[in-house]
Amino acid sequence: MEMTIDFPGGARVDAHFGGFTVQTDQPPAAAAPTPFATFLASIGTCAGIYVLGFCQQRGLPTEGIRIIQRIHANPLNGMIGKIDLEIQVPAAFPEKYLPALVKSAELCAVKKHLEQPPRFDVFARTSV
Hints:
128 residues; 2 domains; 3-stranded antiparallel beta sheet
């Protein structure tokens, strides 16, 4: 997969791939989320895709289901030390499915990549 990152003006930085554009911006006049907020949102939304698929495969209603993502910073360095994903389901949701629902969320590709991070090679060259 290849993405093109460009600078459309101000503090905006956008990513283009597969016919999509992900817009990011920086405060104080942000018209889009920051790149880091977009990254964090990808964790919860990825888990959500798996939870949604789990429910759809079993004919379970998804109304009232939501995921609350909590970010815990390490006070020593300000970096993220822990991320909680709490899957909230309505009272009528069959309790027997809760452990499997959690396992489905744990299949999230973003989470798996964070657990086994890729190597980064950053370099610059003149364009042709």
